[in-house]
Design goal:
Layout (H helix, E strand, L loop, with lengths): L1 E6 L4 E5 L8 E3 L7 E8 L10 E3 L13 E4 L1 E2 L2 E2 L6 E8 L7 E3 L3 E2 L1 E10 L8 E10 L1 E3 L7 E6 L4 E5 L1 E2 L3 E9 L5 E8 L8 E6 L2 E2 L4 E2 H8 L9 E11 L2 E6 L14 E2 L1
Parallel strand pairs: 12-23
Antiparallel strand pairs: 1-2, 1-4, 3-10, 4-9, 5-6, 6-14, 7-8, 9-11, 12-19, 13-18, 13-20, 14-17, 15-16, 20-21, 20-22, 23-24, 24-25
Length: 268
């Protein structure tokens, strides 16, 4: 968990180290009495090498909140799964009478899509298939002033989660999946979906299209899955293939999963 301190003018001051034994509690030491904004990003890592999410290089007394961005590392023309990322911010005013103690309550800024692909008849090929997910957010603005979405999490405690602004650029994700028992199973971890930015999924074998592009927004609408109302985005879908042009899409039930959301099948 990393904490970034910006002054009242929105200019970056420094990164505040957290206690590994108690990462959700942050104490501000050696900070002048004034207003600050603390932006916290969880699961980012200290070194971008080996990580799939990257943030702006912050320069003390130079970088502003408006410049603060997060984007996904690109491999060729697609993105790999990102980490489970978290984000939030806190505007504070330090005074001698106020203890400089900040408690983080972080919002999920990633999305899980679990998928299972089966065939009505036996699949034509053994081996490794490719599943592409297209039309996804590539980057966020981490400027709290740009946050377009706030969801109430715990009404009694007045806990809300804010979510960062999706920038315009779109990207693609890809999974290479081995066929096992005539089934493909996998998971995409991406940046969050929006109600107006739900991806398209397609199955390939090499360069051969096994399905046509499947726009998931139609299914999400039928099933009542609105990404803008879900603080935690975890979706599970099953694709049943009759042939390239005859595909059924339905929520995927796993008996080990407790957060099952009912929904009917839809032919694509």
């Amino acid at each position: 968990m990393r904490h970034f301190l910006f002054n009242a003018e929105g200019i970056y001051e420094r990164e505040i180290p957290s206690n590994p034994k108690d990462p959700q509690n942050l104490r501000l030491i050696g900070t002048e009495d004034t207003k600050y904004t603390i932006v916290t990003v969880g699961n980012l890592g200290d070194d971008p090498i080996g990580k799939n999410a990257i943030i702006t290089t912050l320069k003390p007394h130079e970088t502003t909140l408006k410049d603060f961005r997060l984007w996904l590392y690109e491999t060729k023309d697609y993105r790999r799964n990102t980490e489970e990322l978290f984000w939030n911010f806190k505007e504070i005013e330090l005074k001698e009478t106020n203890p400089p103690h900040y408690i983080c309550d972080l919002a999920n800024i990633h999305c899980h899509l679990f998928f299972q692909v089966t065939w009505v008849d036996a699949p034509a090929y053994d081996g490794t298939y490719r599943v592409d997910l297209t039309g996804l957010t590539e980057s966020y603005s981490l400027d709290p002033m740009q946050s377009p979405l706030t969801l109430e999490i715990y009404k009694q405690n007045n806990v809300v989660h804010n979510f960062p602004l999706h920038e315009p650029a779109l990207t693609n994700h890809r999974q290479e999946v081995n066929l096992f028992n005539h089934t493909l199973s996998g998971e995409f971890i991406t940046l969050r979906y929006r109600a107006d930015r739900i991806p398209t999924i397609q199955v390939f074998y090499g360069d051969e299209e096994i399905t046509m592009p499947i726009d998931l927004s139609k299914a999400f609408a039928q099933w009542g899955w609105n990404p803008d109302t879900r603080a935690e985005q975890i979706y599970r879908i099953e694709i049943v293939i009759k042939d390239k042009n005859n595909v059924t899409l339905r929520p995927w039930f796993d008996a080990t999963i407790n957060d099952w959301v009912n929904g009917g099948s839809i032919s694509m």
